[in-house]
Automatic annotation (TrEMBL):
Species in which this protein is naturally found: Paucidesulfovibrio gracilis DSM 16080
Record InterPro entries: Aldolase_TIM (IPR013785), NADH_flavin_oxidoreductase (IPR051799), OxRdtase_FMN_N (IPR001155)
Domain NADH:flavin oxidoreductase/NADH oxidase N-terminal: 8-340
Gene3D superfamilies documented for this protein: Aldolase class I
GO molecular function, one term: oxidoreductase activity
Name of this chain's protein: 2,4-dienoyl-CoA reductase
Domain of life of the source: Bacteria
Pfam families for this protein: Oxidored_FMN
Record key words, sorted: Flavoprotein, Oxidoreductase
Amino acid sequence: MTTGISPFDPLEINGMRLRNRFMRSATWEGMADADGLATEKLARCMGRLAEGRVGFVVTGHAFVQADGRAGSGQLAADRDECLPGLASLAETVHAHGGACALQLAHAGAHALSSGSGNQPKGPSALDLGRGQSCEAMTCAEIGRIVDAFADAAQRARSAGFDAVQIHAAHGYCLSQFLSPHYNQRTDEYGGPLENRARFLLETLQAVRADLGPDFPVLVKLNSRDYLDRELTREESLLLCRRLENMGVDGVELSGGTQFSGRNIPVRTGRPEIPGGEAWYEDAARQFKAERAMPLMLVGGIRSLDTAERLLDEGVCDVVSMCRPLIREPDLVRRWEQGRREPSSCVSDNLCFRAAMQGDLSCLTLERQSKDEA
């Protein structure tokens, strides 16, 4: 049985209207200033996506505490000084007819220690390899981060964003607590899934209490971690049931961490089309068989044919993409106009090298253009 839903059909999520089912999945742009404040360049980047007909634009992860910053050029949402710049991002997206969410994150064990002068802290004291180590957070520190997420969510609403997305995937702080790879605690935040999920659930309760019932709150979650000791698919789907019951308005399903080998969230190598697309489709199918809340699916989607199939078969409600929209911000417009060729993104991740230089872009496309010239 098919749904008849097209990627170009609108969707409403708790009062937020999306003009189509295409979503820009959050990715670090490297375009904030040294203090994490939004720049005109970052606003143009967000506006360009909306101008290219992306229905739902999610910013790159914004840190909610200075000691949870992941890297240079990262957007901040940790203080009121951020509000004017954040408002410019929302205004630019709205000016081009898009809806927008601010993704909120804390890097936890992978925080940029040089940014705060402190040793990074995660669920447990660990040697993470690659010269990285972290200390264990105290319960009081966890509580302060919960409050920081709620405060940042309030800033998102004040700045004019249509929604917030809580980043609990890819080995960031909330994901670390969910994962036995990182979380070796024996207190109320460690052990069984109920305890490992406590930090995330407390964060969502605080965010919802501050924002009220009528502001969309979304979660980005791993379908699994792809680690020897991991958040499993079964645990992830159990957690989704809890999220739905507590009033979360939608989940973006992804997978992997920086330690997940070939299953890292940004896998390299152009996926085979269509066979190599939609990496988390099986988990998404199981999710939709059990849950009614909207599902955004990211991971290797490169063609309109696959986007149409996923929606028509009810695998997801929104198709989420990242790197294809770095290479071609007009991709959705092109597809909407009937030019159906798949994205030419080759997934070599050179775009992140550009982000390190403060200008997220497709270096491969730039090199090809120079060669042709």
